[in-house]
Structures are given as C-alpha cells and as structure tokens.
Amino acid sequence: VLAAVRKSGAALKFALGELNQDSECLKASGLWDEGERQYSRNEQAILSVKFSLAEQSTPYASEFALAMKKDSFLKDFKTYNPNAWCKESCDPEFTNINHPCRGTPATCTNPLPNTNSEGKPCATSCWRFAFRVHQEVSKETNGFMIQVEEENGLGAGQQIETLMAQEAGIKVFRTTTKLQNFYPAAFWRISKAVKAWYDSGCSNMDLEIVELWME
Fold it and tell me: Per residue in 45-72, is it b (16+ CB within 10 Å) or e — as a string?
C-alpha cells in the first residue's frame, strides 16, 4: 500500500479497512506533512472538499490537495485538509444539513471529546467541530477557504461547510469544473486568484468563483 500511495497519492482511497486514514499512509501520499513543517506565510487556509478517501469516491479532491502542496504560491500556506483526519459526527446521518450542529460548542452534541488536553481538535472530534475550529483560525490569521466543487456539484458536507463559512466570516474561493477528472493545467487560476486577493489588500470578502476546466 505504501509503495502505491508514494507513486500516486490519490491511490490512497483504494486502501481497505482503516488504512486510508493511517498516519504512515497519509504521509506517504503527501496529504499529511511529516512532522511540524514551517510555512513562510502566517495566514492559514482550509480546504472544503468531498470526502475522497472512500473507495467508491473520485480522486479529484486528493489530486487538488496535492497540487496545492506543489504550487509555488499556495504551498506557503498551512492548509487544513479534512480528508486527512478522522471522521466522527454528532449527526447520525453525518451530513444532514438540517441537523443543528454548526461546529460550535453551543450547537455540537458530540458525546465524545471534541478537544484534547491542549484544547485542540482530536481523533474523536465531530468533523463539523474540527472544521469550524480551523475556519476560525483562518479568519483570525486573515486566511481563506478554497471550496473544491466537482463536476456533479457540491457534496452535502460541503453545503454545511458553506453555511459555517458564512457564520465564521471567512473569504471563500470556489473552484468549478465541467470535467470529471482533475485538470492540473488550469490550477494556476486558483493560485492567481488568491494572490490577487492578497495584493488588493483582501478587501473583497464576497465568494469568488474560479473555473478550473480550461487553461
């Protein structure tokens, strides 16, 4: 398995059982950094993607995350990728948008611990709680969220993440595509959009749509 994911990080989704959430497999794929990496930017980013580690899902989200790590500009931002962390939920249906949890202590009913001894999200955190914490960190550091919309639209979890982003008040860039597969030749478009936002003084907090299906 390690040999396969070293060759192609997106192949991690084919690891059976709990191997696709195993720390060594995640590190080998490139989705999880080895140790405490230092980033040149203080702002922190967050990815809103479909859960792509399930065997039946597409590799689009994982390929996007790997491209972000290789991009000359975006690689300098510490980025939270929810696909690289464990999945718990206080919502029995996991992604029911009508469930009241919006990731805050006041709305999350997770019976398991949401934080560790350092007060940070942990393996038993509700996914919404962990995501909201990272959204707040992005907001505090003048960071941003990139929402990766695939050909067939946003996933149910991404729709919830959109609502939470609105509550948190963070900048959102949403990439769209007309293609089933990830198109790396167009990735420069999202990098350019984020850089332009910082160059402009981050004044525009509206949702920005970035098309990633043509060069």
Answer: bbbbbbbbbeeebbbbbbbbbbbbeebe
Residues 6+ apart with CB under 8 A from 70: none
Closest CA to 133 of 93, 105, 159, 154: 105
Q: Strands, DSSP E only, in 21-97? A: 44-48, 78-80
What's the CA gap between 194 and 190, in Å, rounded? 6
CA–CA separation, 46 and 95 (whole Å): 19
DSSP secondary structure code for residue 126 in this structure: B
The pLDDT tens digits of the residues spanning 47-87 come to: 999 875 444 457 898 899 999 999 999 999 999 988 777 67
The model carries a pTM of 0.84
